[in-house]
Amino acid sequence: MAEPQISKTFPVKPKQKPKPRTPKQTPESKYWSSFKTKQIPNLISSINSLTFSPAAPHSLAAAHSTSLTLYNPQSLFSQTSKISLNDVVSSASFRSDGRLIAAADLSGLVQVFDVKTRTPLRRLRSHTRPVRFVKFPLHDKLHLVSGGDDAVVKYWDVAGETTVCDFLGHKDYVRCGDWSPNDSNMFVTGSYDHTVKLWDVRDKDSSSSVTEVNHGKPVEDVMFLPSGGLIATAGGDSVKIWDLIGGGKLVYSMESHNKTVTSICVGKVGKLSGEEAQQYRILSVALDGYLKVFNYAKMRVTHSMRFPAPLMSVGFSPDCMTRVIGTSNGMIYAGRRKSKEDVESGSDEEATKYERRLKRLGSRNALGLGPVAEEPRMRVLKPTSFGYFHRGQSEKPSERDYLVMRPKKVKLGEHDRLLKKFRHKEALVSVLGKSKNPENAVAVMEELVSRKKLLKCVSNLDLEELRVLLLFLQKHCTMPRYGRLLMGLTEKVIEMRADDIRASTELKGLIRNIKRAVEEEIRIQLSLQEIQGVISPLLRITGRR
Known about the structure:
By secondary structure, the chain is of the alpha+beta class. It is 24% helix and 30% strand. The strands form 7 sheets. A 4-stranded antiparallel beta sheet has the order 1-28-27-26, with no helix packed on it. Strand 19 and strand 20 (238-243) form a beta hairpin. Helix 4 runs antiparallel to helix 5 and helix 7 runs parallel beside helix 10. The longest helix has 40 residues, at 505-544. It starts with 26 loop residues before the first helix and ends with a helix. The relative contact order is 0.08.
């Protein structure tokens, strides 16, 4: 009598491993990940300041040690020039036209340099302590503002090398400042006295500010957001957004960093023009080594990156193509995004060989090199030729072609072929003895369970086959993935084949080994539960912060 056959074969497959619940990468995360990072090493000491020129090609100025180094982002961050100062450079700022750059150092001196010639044009000395920030206005080429450890904010006339006004409202070190994007007479400063003050240069009262907000911790950085009505302050482990038009009202506090936030800047998602250009983000870096991208329109963090060193400064180019981060160990992580060039619809890449041939011949005719030669006709293949049966195999399909794929032949293992013939015991013995992957053996056992043949196979095993089964159970019965099935099978094997086990010394040793493995697994699980009991309260306390 012929053995029954199955018309269509489905090989026995092990169960899929559970995938970790990792969130899919969002389009915005893909955008920020598209900045290909390049390291700029061998800079002395930490990178105190990173700033881009407002004018193309948007040169990068990095302040480190007693030097101010200029880089060209378009030529893979090649060093274009280097300006040396007498003391450690703490801050730098380009003028709105990109021709001049101001640099402040810890000696209390502010110098203005010509970017091309590196010539010092002005030396502004009035601070009695180290200067921590210097900033040119966005729409004014004749003035700048500076602040330092003497708690004084100075408004300078660059041409005359004199101070127009001193603002004396702060009570501790002044660390940062920024100009309003809408009004060249308004600027903000942040200090270690926890306050951020809005100043108006037209107000001659040097001790009273227009508006004041309290960040709650020493302020490391402050900036205006592009609308001009909001400011962002960084201090401690938080970045806070304030509404100046609403009288200094706190809008939101982002507390996703674990250590002090050292620098913030504004970045844009998209191109220079169009609707995408209005999608602004806040980029913040901290001593915990993380870069956070904050969408202040939806009030949530949309991207995060980890770096191997504490981060001191961050910058984003006006053309949305370059992102730079400075570390405390003298390393700059410069990321550059590739620009997508528009591809013409009639390009040679999309054209066929015949169209490219006609294009070449047409260009020759236009130059007066003779009439266009007629395209030679292709030789017609006859069914008697060898090439007739192999035509088209080397041709690459075009976009309009419909591909008919040859079905792949299913390769069956030995246990699959035996299951196909309903030889259940032989399939079990085969997968236990030859398969190095326990997943295949468990898959065969599950198939036998579904066919209600597993216990019958176990009862028909001889002593050698029973030894192989017990050896498999000893190795894998305590694995969490297979424990539910294999532990139940172990109990049934001991119950059904008790007489054979008592009669064999080798089988008794295997049973003792299984018992020891189970006891060891129970001890490990109890230890893990004790550890979980210690960690769970700590995680709940951390989640409340």
